[in-house]
């Protein structure tokens, strides 16, 4: 699972998903837009539109799936609920992984039922350029004893471990920067897939603050 606000999806998300698929030899990556992301302001664009952009961004890429399941729930989109639904679908023995960038990871101890996340899945933390910081104490306690140093160690159990990965194609791209550029009529070409750029421009998304 790679969850996100995807407001909008960009090449940092898509390239990371593809790298995870290959490096961890996953069957698939569910990219799951949050209907209502718990720890941030309301996204600029409606969930259905963010899902449409994600679908365009993924295109026919094998192994990447635009998964609408969080749009079907009301209330905050807690990842613990999403992982529980994936666990129910894949069964007790499947190795489930929740991937997230280092910036999101730094706030993990503030999430809903953070310990439950480790009961349901392994966590893989993706290094992001521009986001390096010391771990808050509550986070250090949450992950104590869970860290492993190779993808192989994740495959031995269905859940419970933490792996940090520096992906070879680290990209300093953020949705914040993309929204900022669009709001001031600057180009986002080569930051998002062409089909995503085309839909954003055709529908005048993110143009006004
Ligand atoms: N360039 C990137 N490289 C690696 N991971 C990323 C990158 N951009 C986002 N992520 C991760 O993908 C997940 C979804 O990110 P999100 O949709 O919030 O995008 P964002 O670019 O961080 O957005 P914003 O700038 O609006 O906060 C998060 O776990 C985030 O850390
Ligand atoms: O479950 C939670 O409490 C929780 C709190 C903050 C973020 N998340 C999830 O983390 C993912 C990345 O969030 P964001 O805000 O960085 O886009 C996205 O799938 C969110 O739904 C989940």
UniProtKB/TrEMBL annotation:
Q: What is its EC number?
A: 2.7.7.18
Top-rank taxon? Bacteria
Reaction equation(s) it catalyzes: nicotinate beta-D-ribonucleotide + ATP + H(+) = deamido-NAD(+) + diphosphate
Pathway of action: Cofactor biosynthesis; NAD(+) biosynthesis; deamido-NAD(+) from nicotinate D-ribonucleotide: step 1/1
Coiled-coil regions listed in the entry? none
Keyword tags: ATP-binding, NAD, Nucleotide-binding, Nucleotidyltransferase, Pyridine nucleotide biosynthesis, Transferase
Q: Does the keyword Nucleotide-binding apply?
A: yes
A GO BP annotation: NAD+ biosynthetic process
Q: What region holds the Cytidyltransferase-like domain? A: 1-181
- A Pfam family that this protein carries is CTP_transf_like
Recorded family membership: Belongs to the NadD family.
Q: What does this protein do?
A: Catalyzes the reversible adenylation of nicotinate mononucleotide (NaMN) to nicotinic acid adenine dinucleotide (NaAD).
Can you name this protein? Probable nicotinate-nucleotide adenylyltransferase
Give the gene that encodes this protein. nadD
């Amino acid at each position: 699972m790679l969850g996100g606000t995807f407001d909008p999806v960009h090449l940092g998300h898509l390239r990371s998903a593809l790298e995870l698929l290959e490096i961890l030899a996953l069957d698939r990556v569910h990219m799951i837009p949050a209907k209502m992301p718990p720890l941030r302001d309301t996204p600029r664009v409606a969930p259905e539109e963010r899902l449409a952009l994600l679908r365009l961004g993924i295109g026919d890429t094998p192994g990447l799936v635009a998964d609408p399941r969080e749009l079907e729930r009301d209330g905050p989109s807690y990842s613990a609920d999403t992982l529980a639904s994936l666990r129910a679908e894949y069964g007790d023995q499947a190795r489930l992984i929740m991937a997230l960038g280092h910036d999101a990871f730094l706030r993990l101890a503030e999430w809903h039922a953070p310990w439950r996340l480790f009961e349901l899945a392994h966590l893989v933390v993706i290094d992001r350029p521009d986001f390096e910081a010391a771990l808050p104490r509550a986070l250090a306690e949450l992950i104590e004893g869970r860290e492993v140093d190779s993808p192989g160690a994740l495959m031995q159990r269905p859940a419970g471990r933490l792996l940090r990965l520096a992906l070879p194609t680290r990209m300093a791209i953020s949705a914040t920067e993309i929204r900022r550029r669009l709001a001031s009529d600057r180009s986002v070409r080569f930051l998002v897939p062409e089909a995503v750029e085309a839909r954003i421009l055709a529908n005048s998304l993110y143009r006004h603050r």
